Amino acid sequence: CWYDVGHAYVNDVLGVERHTVMLDTMKDRLLGTHIHDAMADWTVDPGKTDHRAPPGGLVDFVAAKSVLPDDVLRVIELRKEVTREEVVRGVRYLESIEF
Which of 37, 42, 79, 95 would disulfide-bridge 54, Cβ 3.0–4.6 Å? Predict the structure, then answer.
């Protein structure tokens, strides 16, 4: 199965399920993860609340990393408006926390 960090955060904010609990229940079957940041700011254009470069939102990547198995595939999934500079900053951030 596949885990989407940003969408799990949105489900967490909406009260559907804690994203770390969801990840913990599926980690033994996990093949990979989509990595993107998100924010719960409904004043922002809805098309710009997720698929942001980390750390451009409110996802707790440190908490997700603590539950995410080391051997799963990691794919950064960003919206087309993300700039090169945001991508570089995001990759550096993820590397700095050893994500």
Answer: 37
Q: Is the dihedral of CA 79, 67, 72, 87 positive or negative?
A: positive
Coil vs helix vs strand at 77 = coil
- Write out the H or E segment, with its range, that includes residue 34: strand 32-35
| DSSP, res 52 | E
* Per-residue model confidence (pLDDT) at position 19: 77
CA–CA distance from 77 to each of 21, 25, 43, 67, 74 (Å)?
Answer: 22, 23, 23, 20, 9
What is the rounded distance in angstroms from the CA atom of residue 10 to the CA atom of residue 37?
A: 10
Which of 20, 83, 76, 10 has its CA nearest to residue 41?
10
List, for the chain, all residue ranges whose pLDDT scores fall below the cut of 50: none
